Amino acid sequence: MDDGLKIGEITEKTGLSIPTLRHYDSVGLVTPSGRSPGGFRLYNDEDIRRILLVRRMKPLGFTLEQMRDFLDAADALREGAADTDAAEARATLAQIRDEARARYEKLRKQVAYAEEFIDLVDGLEA
Q1: Residue 5: which of 21, 28, 19 has the closest Cα?
Q2: Which stretches make up the HTH merR-type domain (predicted)?
Q3: Domain stop point among 12, 32, 59
């Protein structure tokens, strides 16, 4: 990707809407790396990676602040943060990982209940 992808192309790749991507930009969650001469947002591969991470956190009910904390911590570790900052980043990632696991298990239980309910309904129609 030489110049970057425009927002419409990103919506096709990620399944997120244009207003959602603009909102993420306005709150500083995922800011596009560039702008075209006409002022269009241009996203590079790293921007897309960040958007996909956020998209994966969204159904688990993480807040924008938690998403930002996660991205900041991941960036700090990837960029080789100093020892104190790296320890804090690892702690943030561990906390979010534990919360994600707990939320995942809750969702699995809800899906199981939904499947049971559908089976019950199907049984009533037989």
Answers
A1: 21
A2: 4-73
A3: 59
| Whether residue 34 is found in the same domain as residue 91 | no
The domain of 12 spans 1-59
Q: What is the pLDDT of residues 90-124, one digit of tens each?
A: 999 999 999 999 999 999 999 999 999 999 999 99
Element (H, E) at 111: helix 83-125
Q: What pTM value is reported for the model?
A: 0.81
Helix ranges, 27-82 (H):
45-57, 64-78
In angstroms, the CA 1 to CA 13 distance is 14
How many distinct structural domains can be found in the chain?
2
pLDDT digits (tens, 9 = 90+) for 64-94: 999 999 999 999 998 887 888 889 999 999 9
